[in-house]
Design goal:
By secondary structure, the chain is α+β, with helices and mostly antiparallel strands. Helix 12 crosses helix 17 (380-394) and helix 18 packs antiparallel against helix 19. The longest helix has 42 residues, at 428-469. It is built from 20 helices and 15 strands. The structure holds a DNA duplex.
Length: 540
DNA sequence: AAGCCTAGCGCC
DNA sequence: AGGGCGCTAGGCTT
């Protein structure tokens, strides 16, 4: 038995094999939106990552969609709605042509209930104080989900032979399973000899700490930062061992075997996977691709990788969020940190950079803390904005991104800790640890507003690039310039060499659009650096 | 054996 | 006593 979902003038029909129909009310849309929807249908479905891959396999590219699960997660944060768990297995419905054959009455029931979810979500958005912004967020989140599935489908072009060569040059030939590569073996041997306290289980931090202490070195951990400050001949081979061991275990031959097939790395991107709205990845460590292995990311013959990076995205986001005209001016020249130096606020570009990063992360030590007062004098609105977000977090309040994604409420245990600290006769240690926890939550909310809004800008950018790259009736996605990689503020497009110029144009234009979409009229610019290369490592 | 935690390091 | 992640190995618990 099959049930076909079909759109009708008076609603959405679920048609059974025997011709019987169940009519579900058409979700209502504002007139202007409805008109646009007719020209550019937006598929409403429970989950893009669930439904889109088989469509792509079948050669179907979806232009726009509405992802019920992703929107549900956003709204659950805002309205205190309980996130829904039982989405069932059926897509909701199409808006436009028939897309799915649904199998059986159970799926039909799911389709009806998903339609109800759509209406409930629309009502929640309409009731929100900023429905227009929220609608943009929902559209951007859903467009990102389409791009995520498309990027996995196309895959990142990967030169496995080049990867093998760089591994062999660094580690020696690939060893049999269970054995250490020759270079790691040699370095481990050197470390043992130079420490002179017998055999050392170099891969076990506790064992390594005790060996170092036996050798008379006062260390608490085996972190490379701590080891670097120690003057001892064993430190050089030990630090090199750690670097190479990391390469071997995280992105070595095993990784290559598992993740690269037919010249493509196909990671699973997880839209909305991070609390701030950033993407996460699942498997392959896609968002932590080390610079060491980027020479293996290689365009096909006759193609190029167009690598684009949003320059100093987060401080620019902060400037726009806070309406800091002085910081907008500092960023107008293309290098925001150089602009901060030119403003006279600080003396070096490095101070400008670590100062701004510290302001956005809540740094309290070092150069970052030293230059903060100077930045606060020159850019009071920008610095004031993150300070206010931090204070709100310390009070247990929630904060919001530009388009309306909200930070989670602090856990109950946090609230109890705060209550205990203000109770009469609270021990000083209790007060101290509560204050520390409050500051910590404040650093989270401080960063949330910037990181989360930057994620919104990046989604809008990606959606604009995706739309510009696609030409209907010109073959499948992977035969045209197409997105292949995304990391927070960076995009890679795989493009035929003779179309690179238009791809570069698309990347620049979409960045300008993204600023307008997220912030409306703002003096803040969002420049992107673009480089067409053969290997990822040649960019930047 | 499987599941969970920690240390440590990679990325933005 | 600087935000957000994912992954691996070691080492513990169940």
């Amino acid at each position: 038995m099959h049930i076909v979902v079909d759109r009708r003038p008076d609603g959405v029909a679920l048609i059974d094999d025997d011709g019987s129909e169940t009519l579900v009310p058409e979700p209502r849309l504002p007139a202007a939106v409805a008109e646009r929807e007719v020209e550019h249908p937006r598929w409403v479905w429970t989950s893009t990552v669930q439904w889109y891959p088989p469509l792509l396999e079948a050669g179907v590219r979806v232009d726009r969609c509405y992802d019920l699960k992703l929107v549900d997660a956003i709204l659950a944060g805002i309205a205190g709605r309980a996130p829904r768990r039982d989405w069932g297995s059926a897509p909701a419905t199409s808006r436009g042509d028939t897309l799915f054959d649904l199998d059986g009455a159970t799926d039909a029931a799911h389709a009806i209930s998903a339609l109800a979810a759509w209406e409930s979500q629309q009502a929640a958005i309409a009731a929100h104080g900023e429905p227009t912004k929220l609608t943009l967020l929902v559209a951007a989140e859903s467009a990102g989900a389409l791009a995520a599935v498309e990027m996995r489908h196309a895959g990142l072009p990967w030169d496995a032979a080049a990867h093998d060569t760089l591994l062999t040059e660094a580690l020696g030939p690939r060893p049999p399973p269970g054995q250490r590569p020759a270079q790691l073996e040699a370095l481990a041997h050197d470390v043992e000899q130079l420490l002179g306290v017998g055999p050392v289980s170099i891969d076990s931090p506790p064992a390594l700490v005790s060996a170092l202490r036996r050798a008379g070195l006062e260390v608490a951990t085996t972190r490379s930062g701590e080891l670097k400050r120690i003057d001892h001949p064993a430190m050089a081979p030990l630090l090199q061992y750690k670097t190479l061991s990391r390469l071997h275990t995280a992105n070595g031959w095993n990784w290559l075997d598992e993740w690269v097939r037919e010249g493509r790395f196909r990671p699973t991107f997880v839209p909305g996977g991070v609390v701030t709205g950033r993407w996460a990845s699942d498997g392959g460590g896609a968002l932590q691709l080390p610079k060491q292995v980027r020479p293996a990311v290689h365009a096909d013959d006759g193609w190029a990788l167009v690598v684009a990076d949003a320059a100093q995205l987060e401080p620019r986001i902060l400037a726009a969020l806070s309406g800091d005209a002085a910081m907008a001016t500092a960023g107008a020249g293309g290098d925001l940190y150089a602009g901060i130096v030119a403003s006279g606020a600080v003396v070096t570009r490095e101070h400008a950079k670590v100062g701004m990063l510290g302001a956005m992360y809540g740094g309290t030590t070092g150069i970052s803390a030293q230059v903060l007062p100077r930045l606060a004098r020159s850019f009071p609105r920008a610095i004031g904005y993150v300070e206010a977000a931090a204070r709100a977090g310390e009070r247990g309040e929630r904060v919001s991104t530009r388009l309306g994604r909200t930070s989670p409420a602090p856990p109950t245990s946090w609230r109890e800790q705060q209550s205990a600290a203000v109770a009469e006769g609270a021990a000083e240690s209790v007060v101290r640890s509560a204050r520390s926890a409050a500051r910590s939550w404040g650093r989270f909310t401080r960063n949330f507003v910037v990181q989360g809004t930057a994620a919104e800008w990046a989604l809008a950018w990606m959606a604009g690039v995706r739309r510009r790259l696609w030409t209907p009736d010109a073959g499948p996605i992977e035969s045209q310039p197409h997105l292949v990689f995304f990391v927070h503020d960076e995009l890679i497009v795989h493009s035929p060499v003779d179309r690179v110029a238009e791809v570069e144009h698309a990347l620049h234009e979409a960045a300008i659009d993204a600023g307008r979409i997220v912030f409306g009229v703002t003096p803040v610019t969002f420049p992107v650096t673009v480089a067409a290369v053969q290997r990822y490592s040649e960019a930047k």
